[in-house]
Design goal:
Rossmann fold; 24% strand; single chain
């Protein structure tokens, strides 16, 4: 069983912002698999899917970004899923717009939502998929930047990144995280 959690902030005020790219990926997957995120369970909107005869949970925490770990821990405990079978999808302002990075785990870096997840789960060994929303210009306020919306031109580039994220997630869920890392992390460098 897998859990895919997209990080973001709940509410209309934050819809479409850079910080809600994780929510966007989950919405795309829900549409693709014909499910709706409805149930409020474990401080999150969730949908359950059967994919290739395997149970999968899509989730959007409703705790706000900085407290995302609370919802992720509740979901993991409720479904009895270990951290290695949870994929966290988040934005990253240090990655160029439209690029993605896949990692098996590691430091949360400066991302407060990911920090919360690592702290609540008690381990940095949580697979993650980071979607680029950057770059952050020198002297630009990071908080204002992540809470801003994309321009029309940026939305076209973001669409490519979201498609890559879906493709990478399919590989991860098929047990091919190394292949996803090799494929997408290399593309991002070139």
């Amino acid at each position: 069983m897998w859990i895919v959690v997209g990080l973001g902030n709940p509410g209309r005020r934050y819809a479409g912002t850079r910080h809600n790219v994780g929510f966007s990926v989950i919405q795309r997957l829900a549409r693709r698999w014909g499910v709706k995120l409805r149930r409020r369970k474990y401080a999150a909107r969730v949908a359950e899917v059967i994919r290739d005869e395997e149970r999968l949970v899509l989730a959007q925490p409703q705790t706000y970004m900085n407290m995302s770990g609370l919802a992720v821990r509740q979901i993991a405990e409720g479904y009895r899923v270990p951290p290695l079978n949870i994929v966290v999808v988040t934005d990253d302002l240090d990655i160029p717009l439209g690029q993605i990075r896949v990692r098996k785990g590691g430091s949360a870096g400066t991302h407060n939502g990911l920090r919360s997840v690592v702290a609540e789960m008690g381990t940095p060994s949580i697979p993650r998929l980071r979607v680029g929303i950057g770059p952050l210009a020198a002297r630009e306020d990071a908080v204002k930047f992540v809470l801003s919306r994309f321009s029309r031109e940026e939305l076209q580039v973001l669409e490519e990144g979201l498609a890559k994220a879906e493709e990478a997630l399919e590989m991860i869920l098929d047990g091919r995280i190394e292949a996803a890392m090799n494929s997408f992390n290399q593309r991002a460098v070139t």
